[in-house]
């Protein structure tokens, strides 16, 4: 059976209840990275985000007094992806969205791969937790998989109910 959960940082509550800045600082220190104001603010933004955010949404959520420019936001988001703390996915609108990698997976050397469900009506993305099956296909000898992405597109239960679709389960 497949279970869906919205992209959120609920697992962070066990680490730092209600304090995304403290959780962000802890993650950066565990990584051995420099803790800068832009990294801290942007990671905290992803930690408290209930769903993946576009670059513009990250900018909109940052505190005004932080004075982080657009280019710095792009660089920090890409740096967080490179460090394994965030993931970057292109939506059906071809706009990249960034989300936090689950805390336990962020500490592991290899991020636990899983599928996503993208609602084509509300544009939300949900994690799909499989029953132990890998989403990685078999590849020929000598090939090495670096990353696998599987996104299922459709209508989420909430949108299905609100629009009266019988097909939404």
What radius of gyration results from the CA coordinates? Answer: 17 Å
* Secondary structure: number of strands: 7
**Numbering strands along the chain, what is their spatial order in the largest sheet?**
1-6-5-7
Mean pLDDT: 77
Characterization of this structure:
This protein has one domain: Winged helix-like DNA-binding domain superfamily/Winged helix DNA-binding domain (Arc Repressor Mutant, subunit A), CATH 1.10.10. Helices cover about 35% and strands about 20% of the residues. It is built from 6 helices and 7 strands. A 4-stranded mixed sheet has the order 1-6-5-7, with no helix packed on it. The chain has a 3-stranded antiparallel sheet with strand order 2-4-3. A hairpin with a 5-residue loop joins β5 and β6. α1 packs across α2, α2 crosses α4 and α3 packs across α4. It is globular and about 40 Å long. It starts with a strand and ends in a 6-residue tail after the last helix.
Quick summary:
With 169 residues, the chain is of the alpha+beta class.
List the helices and strands and how they pair.
Elements: E1 3-6, H1 20-31, H2 37-48, E2 53-54, H3 55-61, H4 70-82, E3 86-90, E4 96-100, H5 103-107, E5 115-119, E6 125-129, E7 151-154, H6 157-163
Parallel strand pairs: 5-7
Antiparallel strand pairs: 1-6, 2-4, 3-4, 5-6
Helix pairs in contact: 1-2, 2-4, 3-4
Describe this protein with a few key phrases:
Arc Repressor Mutant, subunit A; 169 residues; disordered N terminus; 7 strands
